[in-house]
Amino acid sequence: MKVLVVGSGGREHAIVTSISKSDKVSKIYCAPGNAGIAALAECVDIGVMDFDKLVAFAKDKAVDLVVVAPDDPLVAGAVDAFEAAGIRAFGPRANAAIIEGSKAFSKDLMKKYGIPTAAYENFTDADSALKYLETATFPIVLKADGLALGKGVLICNDLEEAKAGVKEIMLDKHFGSAGNTMVIEEFMTGREVSVLCFCDGTTIKPMTSAQDHKRAKDGDQGLNTGGMGTFSPSPFYTKEIDEYCMENIYKPTMAAMKAEGREFKGVLFCGLMMTPNGVKVLEYNARFGDPEAQVVLPRMKNDIIDVMEACIDGTLDKVDLQFEDNAAVCVVLASDGYPVSYEKGYPIHGLEKFDGKDDYFVFHAGTKFDGDQIVTNGGRVLGVTAKGKDLFEARANAYAATEWITFDNKYMRHDIGKAIDEQ
């Protein structure tokens, strides 16, 4: 098979790494890819939103399967474009990817079908939102409705903060058109957990659990980011919680989307909060998480091509999804100043130290070639992932491996997976 992966970050590097292990695959392309992906795939200079060029390339190269990884092209209909051209594509169509593309849609879906989530209201004008806040209980959460690179969520501790948040989202358009509609939601307390699920429109199969660290600085301080690190599995996500989620969240979500004429095929990312009143949905995403994919996929035993094809063909019920009985931790090496402003173009040293080490991975997120030298080219530069027999060993291994890599402006959190110490 020839496979084309659409995307250019650490998630895509993790996906390409998994695909490269399949005996069924003879050639991998990645558009646009990055310097790390280039070691496994032929990188093609086509943007993720340039559907006409992507389709033409896939036809020209007789690509057998396209994997659309990022949220923007999924929500905009990349899978629909490939399917219209007769090309098999993994990922939800646009009418299903709306579950991530519109927070207002997903909240309304959960309310309609009785899927547990935080109480909320949707607003399309700032005056109504401000009036509502006058009677609200704090802290409270403001969410831009549309895609905002994982950053369109504000937790406000008092009325003044909330008013400033409404201005930021709805009036100043800090997140662009994503803020045309805004969700105001009750603040939930508890432990967060991310569960990625393979879906074929009818059957849903959860992968192993993971937990992300969104804030830029140690101790969950600083601004929201795309994710500064992850660990898998979550020791707090028990078999009992998994069974509850399957019956009350995962299966009902699949059934709800089908009932709405929005059959969901691909990866459904369920962001969950384990509250004192039970597990509730924080948000849905319509794709592999980043950096969750970097700890979940290295632990998967199955041939990823078999699973993706089963999702497309509606035969996921026949797949025995299996994960290794171990743990993985990913620490993101970022450019100092991320997520606000940072410099690019610094040479990266030490990448070769990961060669031949089966339980260590360095997933490229923001890198490129400058001649023969790989240099920094983004806020999140690399994801250093390591396995271990348990989370403690995996965490120690991952942090040890971060020392193998050097570049100017290197920044990372030092407490990824620290929650496991509280077990």
UniProtKB/TrEMBL annotation:
One GO term of the biological process aspect: 'de novo' IMP biosynthetic process
GO molecular function: ATP binding; metal ion binding; phosphoribosylamine-glycine ligase activity
Protein keywords: ATP-binding, Ligase, Manganese, Metal-binding, Nucleotide-binding, Purine biosynthesis
SMART domains linked: GARS_A, GARS_C
Catalytic activity: 5-phospho-beta-D-ribosylamine + glycine + ATP = N(1)-(5-phospho-beta-D-ribosyl)glycinamide + ADP + phosphate + H(+)
Highest rank taxon of the organism: Bacteria
Family from the record: Belongs to the GARS family.
Name of the molecule in the record: Phosphoribosylamine--glycine ligase
Organism (species): Coprococcus eutactus
